[in-house]
Specification:
The complex is a heterodimer of chains A (128) and B (255). With 128 residues, chain A is an all-alpha fold. Chain A has a single domain (20-127), classed as 3 helical TM bundles of succinate and fumarate reductases. Helices cover 75% and strands 0% of the residues of chain A. Chain A contains five helices and no strands. Chain A has helices at 8-11, 23-49, 56-66, 69-97, 103-127. In chain A, helix 2 (23-49) packs across helix 4. The radius of gyration of chain A is 19 Å and the shape is extended. With 255 residues, chain B is an alpha+beta fold. Chain B folds into two domains: 3-105, Beta-grasp domain (Ubiquitin-like (UB roll)), CATH 3.10.20; 108-254, Alpha-helical ferredoxin (Fumarate Reductase Iron-sulfur Protein, Chain B, domain 2). Chain B has helices at residues 34-45, 79-82, 108-116, 151-154, 165-169, 181-194, 198-209, 222-226, 233-254, and strands spanning 3-12, 20-29, 65-67, 70-72, 89-92, 99-101, 104-105. A five-stranded mixed beta sheet of chain B has the order 2-1-5-3-4. A two-stranded antiparallel ribbon of chain B has the order 6-7. In chain B, strand 3 (65-67) and strand 4 form a beta hairpin. Chain B is elongated and about 70 Å long. Classes of the chains: A mainly alpha (128), B alpha+beta (255). Chains A and B meet through helix 2 and helix 4 of A and helix 9 of B.
């Protein structure tokens, strides 16, 4: 029977399609985005650390670049990813092993914690 | 009673043709359901439109599709619930199933999963009815029957009408064709509550705990949100996780 099916790569786009969906889907999409972002960051971090092998000069040059304000914005984005992914992980652990009825309230509360923590961290990062 | 002019944008696909949308305008009563408009399109404008429907009252689950991107049963969805009548309603087939023609999808994968979960024949007795079959022949006071203690664990699953909406709503299904899916895993949970056979329990646990079982679910809870029958498949998946983890811990403790 001839049927129509989208290629897998296009179907993966449904991970991020939150249109008309409920809060749990937002949590799912955020977890995927931050998860992929953190994996990319891990590899970038290893590349950056490898500058140490080129001597103190190369490392100092990178550190002075990392203190620029636009670079600090990347730090805040990284922290946002860690907070969202980590706290969402607590939601997953709770729904999987304790109870699953209050997952929406839990997600909202944990994201509130993420916003407060991120705001405090951003003030600290930019305030010095 | 008012008459409404309803415009539908309907997904069209026939084997060998490019998928596209066709627009139809039909007149229906303001109390009509979406399935009534689809019926009218077929009856009055396009006999080549293919779609499924049977019971018209959410018992068979065969008409399930997406209305403006959201999985619904059009037989119980009124126009007032899904729009103001001014913007066209977009109708698409369910996601995560191969499309056969227009709004018709191949649901065989759904039933294969149900069968694997030992759910193809489960109603060997209607233990939840307050009357036994013998009572129906004579007018007597309803006789209270003793319900099983663990009834709440599985009776909601008996409401499953096998519409496939949960599989369409699940984002994980999109890329894992072998994933047991919300209905399949909820069926496993239900079957586990009903059997005392250790071999069957082991088989079901292995299926749930396998590569395409409960750990592939990433807790979007869209299956539970979309289910028109309040079966709560996501809740059953989480319950299975607890059961399997507890079993594993017990085994570890025993050595």
């Amino acid at each position: 029977m001839a049927t129509l099916e989208q290629p897998k790569v296009r179907r993966a786009g449904r991970w991020f399609d939150v249109r008309h969906r409920k809060l749990g889907m937002w949590a799912y999409a955020l977890n995927r985005i931050t998860g992929i972002g953190l994996v990319v960051y891990l590899y970038l971090h290893l590349v950056v650390l490898s500058t140490l092998t080129r001597g103190p000069g190369a490392w100092d040059a990178f550190v002075s670049l990392a203190r620029q304000p636009y670079f600090l914005v990347l730090d805040v984005i990284l922290l946002a990813g860690i907070l969202i992914h980590g706290l969402n992980g607590l939601r997953l652990a709770h729904t999987s092993f304790i109870e699953a009825k209050r997952q929406k309230v839990l997600f909202s509360a944990l994201m509130l914690v993420a916003v407060v923590a991120l705001s405090a961290a951003a003030l600290k990062i930019f305030g010095g | 009673m008012k008459l409404l002019d309803i415009t539908l944008e309907i997904f069209r696909y026939k084997p060998g043709q490019q998928p596209h949308y066709d627009t139809f305008t039909v007149q229906v009563e303001d109390t009509a359901h979406v399935i009534d408009a689809i019926d009218k399109v077929w009856a009055e404008q396009d006999h080549t439109l293919t779609f499924r429907r049977a019971c018209h009252h959410s018992s068979c689950g065969s008409c399930a599709l997406r209305i403006n991107g959201v999985e619904k049963l059009p037989c119980i969805t009124r126009f007032s619930e899904v729009g103001d009548g001014k913007i066209p309603l977009r109708l698409d087939p369910l996601r995560n199933f191969p499309i056969v023609s227009d709004l018709v999808v191949d649901v065989s994968g759904f039933f294969q999963r149900m069968s694997a979960s030992d759910m193809s024949i489960t109603r060997d007795a209607e233990s939840t009815l307050p009357l036994s079959v013998d009572d129906l022949g004579s007018i007597v006071q309803p006789k209270a029957v003793q319900l099983p203690d663990n009834l709440s664990h599985f009776n909601r699953f008996e409401n499953c009408i096998e519409c496939g909406i949960c599989m369409s709503a699940c984002p994980t299904m999109a890329v894992d064709n072998k994933f047991m899916g919300p209905a399949g895993l909820a069926a496993i949970y239900c079957a586990l509550q009903k059997t005392d056979d250790p071999d069957e329990k082991a088989h079901l646990m292995a299926l749930a705990n396998g590569e395409h079982g409960i750990w592939r679910c990433h807790s979007a809870f869209e299956c539970t949100e979309a289910c028109p029958q309040a079966v709560d498949p996501a809740g059953k998946i989480m319950a299975l996780r607890r059961e399997i983890t507890a079993n594993r811990l017990m085994k570890t403790r025993r050595g």
